[in-house]
Specification:
This protein is of the alpha/beta class. The chain folds into two domains: 136 residues, Glycerate kinase, domain 1 (Rossmann fold); 221 residues, Glycerate kinase, domain 2 (Alpha-Beta Complex), CATH 3.90.1510.10. It is built from 13 helices and 13 strands. The strands form three sheets. It has a six-stranded mixed beta sheet with strand order 3-4-5-6-9-10, sandwiched between helices. A five-stranded parallel beta sheet has the order 2-1-11-12-13. A hairpin with a 5-residue loop joins strand 4 and strand 5. Helix 1 crosses helix 13 and helix 2 packs parallel to helix 9. The two termini are 16 Å apart. 51% of the residues are buried.
Length: 379
């Protein structure tokens, strides 16, 4: 029996490859002769670079860049097997995970390090880019990234502004004469499922600002500052970002890509499915196991289990989801190809214990689901 194993990471507990191996162990306890095909995947967030690099026999490059608070951080980017395509996870340079909760402040955080990653990859000869922009700590409208790539943002006196969203209101002039010319020679594919506009009640500041440390008062300032930045961009480029879908992704960096880069957007999970050749690997499979840290109503918006299930449904293959926890709204998943959802938690336990025992719990859950599948087939 051929079984495809295509989980996402279990954030803070297991990487996607580790999760896939744990599921495989459980399946083989129930069916030792199973023909398992491991396809670790991601949805444009954490693990996207690892997934694409592994799928194409590429390599990771480690570099030091400025983090979201301008302190040095160890970041990385991937070079895919074609040796021309670079994949960057924004979170490795400008991620919320790089700042302890007490220091999170989207008025101060900058995307400068993400710009440095792009510059280093350009220096390395890359001209095709995939940007996974989930998990950011920033709300600066992408100005830090632009500053790192040579764009000068000047105040009313002609002096360069500083870094972070607090500085957006001071910008009077966008001087792109020294903006890295290699960008116009390159292509940028932005992996995100976020369709929020740049500003307004559904924009970057109101929707994502609070989780990055913004109080209600700061949210209003952030939105005003992004409005000022969007007005300047429109005057400079003619591009109206204010209500443009996806411009609010990752604190507005989505809008910076739309305005200043030769960029296109694609749902993260669709991009990963394409690069991992999941459709081809599903041929002849009897079932699919996928999983993630939490499965709930948000899963339907394009997270890994949903994308995997949509692809498997085309082949008529049932999909089983193993989840670290199960939240509200999973009923809507069943119409999209997911057969059933299973929690891996087998008894009351503290979250820390569950995360430390992730591989063991995932293996046990996979074994039990597989035994149920086999019992059903025996009837």
């Amino acid at each position: 029996m051929k079984i495809v194993i295509a989980p996402d990471s279990f954030k803070g507990s297991l990487t996607a490859p580790e999760a896939a191996r744990a599921i495989e162990k459980g399946i083989k306890k129930a069916l030792p002769e199973a023909d398992t095909v491991l396809v670790p995947v991601a949805d444009g967030g954490e693990g996207t670079a690892d997934s694409l690099v592994a799928a194409t026999n590429g390599r990771m490059v480690e570099v030091v860049v400025k983090g979201p608070l301008l302190e040095p951080v160890q970041a990385s980017y991937g070079i895919l097997g074609d040796q021309e395509t670079c994949v960057i996870e924004m979170a490795t340079a400008s991620g919320l995970n790089l700042i302890i909760p007490e220091r999170r402040n989207p008025m101060l955080t900058t995307t400068y390090g993400t710009g440095e990653l792009i510059k280093k990859a350009l220096d390395n000869g890359c001209r095709n880019f995939i940007l996974a922009i989930g998990g950011s700590a920033t709300n600066d409208g992408g100005i830090g990234m632009l500053q790192a790539l040579g764009m000068k943002l000047l105040d009313a006196e002609g002096n360069p502004i500083g870094f972070g969203a607090a500085e957006l209101s001071r910008i009077s002039v966008i001087d792109d004469r020294e903006f890295d010319s290699r960008i116009s020679e390159a292509s940028f594919l932005i992996a995100t499922d976020v369709q929020n506009p740049f500003i307004g009640p559904n924009g970057a500041s109101h929707v994502f600002g609070p989780q990055k440390g913004a109080t209600p008062e700061i949210v209003e300032i952030l939105d005003r500052n992004l409005t000022h930045w969007a007005d300047l961009i429109e005057a400079k480029t003619g591009i109206h970002l204010h209500d443009r879908p996806g411009a609010g992704a990752a604190g507005g960096i989505g809008g910076a890509f739309q305005a200043f880069f030769p960029a296109a957007t694609k749902r993260g999970i669709d991009l990963v499915i394409e690069y991992t050749n999941l459709a081809e690997k599903l041929n002849g499979a009897a079932c699919v196991f996928t999983g993630e840290g939490q499965t709930d109503f948000q899963t339907a918006s394009g997270k890994t289990p949903m994308g995997v299930a949509e692809e498997a449904k085309k082949h008529g293959i049932p999909v089983f989801v193993l989840a670290g926890s199960i939240g509200k709204g999973i009923d809507q998943l069943y119409q999209h190809g997911i057969h059933s959802v299973h929690s891996i938690i087998n008894s009351p336990m503290p979250l820390e214990d569950a995360m430390n025992r992730g591989a063991e719990l995932l293996e046990q859950a996979a074994e039990q689901v597989m035994r149920t599948v086999l019992a059903g087939r025996a009837k």
